[in-house]
Design goal:
Elements lengths: L1 H10 L4 E3 L2 E4 L3 H23 L3 H18 L9 E3 L3 E5 L2 E2 L2 E2 L3 E5 L3 E6 L5 E5 L4 E4 L6 H11 L11
Antiparallel strand pairs: 1-2, 2-3, 3-4, 4-7, 5-6, 8-9, 9-10
Helix pairs in contact: 2-3
């Protein structure tokens, strides 16, 4: 399923694509669905308190809260990756299995390496250690990868991005 989703999103149009500038953003529909499931799970957990099911309530509030906290920011532009002829800007920290709120900018010529995390996020890394993350859940991420290959042809990409 992951391979299918990745291949589908690789070739999709990015959100913004003008010349050498671009922007990719996490899929809003999947983020909205997961966030709504999280909110509904929290609501079910709160309702469970009134029926005396405290263990169920606790589990639902924790799981639903985690879904909402991890996926909610993807509904905003906080996790977007954008680039122009000079630099790339995007999310720079992981928060558990998802992206955090921090963002950074890296100039193309400052990219020292690329890699992939255990939670399937790819990243570019500057020589000073700063990173920008993205994943197969970003429709049009292939456009960013092509810009990366064009601007930094000597950089070795993870096997699944070559």
């Amino acid at each position: 399923m992951t391979v299918f989703w990745s291949r589908m999103n690789y070739g999709r149009s990015s959100q913004h694509d003008i010349g050498s500038d671009g922007n990719i953003t996490p899929g809003k529909i999947s983020a909205a669905i997961i966030t709504l499931v999280g909110v509904a799970t929290v609501a079910f957990g709160i309702a469970s308190i009134f029926f005396g099911a405290l263990a169920t309530a606790l589990i639902c509030v924790v799981v639903g809260g985690a879904l909402t906290i991890f996926m909610g920011p993807s509904l905003t532009h906080r996790h977007d990756v954008s680039w122009n002829p000079k630099e790339i800007t995007g999310p720079s920290r992981l928060f558990g299995p998802s992206l955090g709120y921090s963002r950074t900018t890296i100039r193309w010529n400052d990219i020292a390496s690329t890699g992939k995390t255990a939670t399937d996020y790819w990243f570019i890394q500057a020589s000073d250690g700063r990173r920008i993350y993205w994943s197969y859940l970003y429709p049009g991420y292939g456009r960013f990868v092509e810009s990366l290959k064009l601007n930094r042809p000597q950089i070795i990409l993870p096997d699944d991005l070559r």
